Structures
1.
Amino acid sequence: MTRRIMLNAKKPCLLHVPRLVLVLLLLASCQSTNVKETKSSRSHKAKLPQPPQVTQPSRPKPTTKDENEELRQEIETWIKDDIVPKVSKAIYLPYDGSIPIKVELTNVSEQLAYMEEYYRQEDPENPGKTYANRNDWIGEYVTVLGLLQDANDFLPVYKDFRSSFAAASYYNGTIEVYLEPDQPLDKDRLYSSLVHEVVHLLQDQYFPFRHPDVYQDNEYEAHKGLIEGHAKFIDLLFRNEINPDDVTNPEFSKRFKKYLEDYRVQLESYNISNDPSATQKQLQHPELSNFLLYDAVTPYSYGPLIVSYIIEDLVEQGIVNPAVFWKKVHAFLDNPPVSMEQVLHPEKMAAFAETADAPDPVNEDALTINTSEETLLETTIFGENTWRSLLRAYGIDTAEAVAAAAGWDGDRVWVLRNNDGVHSVHMLIRFDSDQDLQEFVTTLKKAIDGKSILHVEVDALELRLVFTAKSEQSES
Ligand SMILES: [Zn+2]
């Protein structure tokens, strides 16, 4: 979560501004992955509805210590004199200086301290309440979905995602480099991360992230899929010391696609329970932890494959001039996918007209709410990938989750609280065919068994689901 969209959000509507919690918890946006891929996933936002947000939290100011100033300058010079020229030449996006390059050094404890401080502040929208209070209901929401037993565990688990970082991040012209205290800087490890962040800087210069008119999470995620996919594609080329001009070689592009497929599979096989660096709290709540991670990692696992798909198409057209070639890739950054479905299945992008598949959006008013009894806390769009992530978090194996979520054609999620303080989650999902719908229902019922009370209603190709937490049911 990285780009101008965060800063320039003009209309403060429910879904317009990226989610507050992760703005707070994952302030360092868009950490690039480095040697340890699974770590990077923790530093990206996940799909959670957010409360309305009007005021933007200010960024923490990294406090570069005097003794680090020399190192900071060294990295800045390295980026300016070596990495920027190499990357901009490789991807045919000259750096024009319009975004000054700044490097700041930071570390995990500094960011955590800022976060804690931020949480203690009073929320100007809700006098008497802190920013931490504002997010209380999100714990209830994931509990209703059966991902947690106790809503109070949400924030501690979530905070732990803040405790591990990738090597660097890009945010509005600034490249932040994370230093581990008492550890020497590993320049080899940092290199491809800096390449990645420099790609973001160049993207920022040429393709300010376009804001959909009506902001939808799913669409934001899809844009991010291409933005991150492009950056990850380039950082993997550099990491493997490949000349980016070689991608127009048909043999090479096939081999590299295979490499990216393997890379995706590697990221997709992640499970918090097998991660030696997972914290105690994350291990105690694997369903929530996996849900957050699965969803967050997708732009980095599937994103590079979109670029690969575009390349395959261009190579088939016989485009071999790298300059022409990369320009055509850039045209996609100008016209990004509109749905995560298209990130997962690039052939469904509008640019590939024969197989294009745009979602059938579900409007906010598709759920009738009795406002004297219930309050709408949030509404959002999951998208195909979040359904996959949810099913996988429930323990469904990846292949079955992928098959179950396929055929998705649109959805909406509403989080409600009734006058007794009981939360419920309503969902409406559209499918391409009845078979797609039935497959999904079968897998979902298996997945949710015993975790939540699930009400299922089918009408033609539409599926309505209502989740209620078990404990709440038994209390009432
Ligand atoms: Zn990135």
2.
Amino acid sequence: MFSPTSSAILLYPAAIEKAIFRTSESNKHKQTKNMSEQAQIVRKDILPQPENPLVPLQRVNVTGQAVETESSEQNKPNLFSPKTIRGVTFKNRIGVSPMCQYSSFDGFASDFHLTHLGSFAFHGSGLVIMEATAVAPQGRISPQDNGIWKDEHIPNLKRITEVIKFAGAVPGIQIAHAGRKASTYALFHPKVDEPAPVEEGGWDDILAPSAIPFKEGARVPKEITVEEIKQTTQQFVDAAIRANKAGFQVVELHFAHGYLASSFLSPHTNRRTDNYGGSFENRIRFALETAEAVRKVWPQEYPLFVRISAADYIDPVHADNGQWTVHDSVELAKRLKAVGVDVIDCSSGGNSPFYKTPARGEGYQIPLAEQVKAEAEIDTAGVGSIYTPSYANSIVQEGKVDFVLLGRQLLDEPSWPTRAGDELGYSVSRLDQYKYGKYKKVPLFRTD
Ligand SMILES: Cc1cc2nc3c(=O)[nH]c(=O)nc-3n(C[C@H](O)[C@H](O)[C@H](O)COP(=O)(O)O)c2cc1C
């Protein structure tokens, strides 16, 4: 588990060394300070000024760009065909699905993120979407979530986007508000999903369309007021402006998995009687207004993605007030398209602990993306248990999706795109620094 102190140490090791030194110096005079007071001194000392001891990328004397020149263009598998949306060209259709890493402190991205996300770009993914990044501190899933609610977050994020672009990939960021699922322990804490107590960095004032907890034992959210709805939309807008300043070229709005926007969409979680609840038109209002407002500030040359839970898939026994279906998703996608959204990223579930998917196995959510693409006539990203290169290629080739997002497979194997190319008979160009990896089956030193 990432304690705030240990995450701080990971954030800025050089700074902390100095801070610890200073702390121990001052302790010569103030032996009475207890451990938590010392920790406060260390954290206050390091957070505002991350140090940058690494050589800036601009000084690295190589091309750095992964240019696909080494394989026959005619035989290029669809998975590796480029795609242009607005002013951005993705070199292939492989994207890193956003994945929370619970490795931030006070919302600040850390050196963990730089290495983690940079690695995917170095190994061939065309699109790297940074994890759910909170538009407000209250909208974090856990105290360790990444954030973009203040300008001070921008420099760390910018370092990350520069590395991703250096490797020829497109940097994206998912911006999010966790709604009633905020303020829980992080994924790798033994008490995952349980409310994080205030003394461990949690907070009690969580928001939702209706005052219904996610599950038994979860915090009861406060019913969000119309004024707070408008403020939240503005927080998404401000986050998008910061994302642009940080160098991202794709923003994905997180409207899935039972978080704030998702719980507005579903009749299961939205029991409001005002303009933001009841009818389909009312339930989609927050999502639509937010997408429209973000589109106005997000540069016209950059694509806007929206991730939805394309179906709630709640066990009907537990869905007495109805649930969100793929037909609703098609209607929503048409309206999102009309306000300038470019891609619908189709996930599912998260709105209830009683999730019951009709499908299992590789690509279990792809039928949702396929239907949204066909009926709303909009580009889609497909995600969920995709790991076989031939399968990933086939869903692009057959026009079911435009992007294939991988999560856990890439965590396990960041170089999956290179292996996928090999298996599909296509030689993916490596970064200059990694070119020798390609010739691993011949002796390094030849004598003939
Ligand atoms: C560690 C982890 C963190 C995740 N965090 C997010 C997130 O921040 N935003 C999101 O929309 N989905 C999140 N997801 C879901 C993934 O993006 C993805 O949709 C899901 O894992 C299914 O894809 P996969 O089978 O390729 O892993 C997360 C999944 C994992 C495993």
